[in-house]
Amino acid sequence: MKLARFAAEGRVLKGTVRADGRLETVEGHIYEPDAVIWLPPVVAGKAIGLALNFRDHAAELKLDLPPVPVLFNKMPNTFLGHKGKIIAPPNVEYMHYENELVVVIGRRCRRVQAERALEVVRGYTIGNDVTIRDFVMNYYRPPVKAKGWDTFGPLGPWLVTADEIPNPGNLTLRTYVNGELRQEGNTRDFIYSVPQLIEYITEFMTLEPNDMIWTGTPKGISPIHPGDKLRLEIEGIGALENEVVGESED
Question: Do the beta carbons of residue 117 and residue 194 sit within 8 Å?
Answer without folding.
Answer: yes
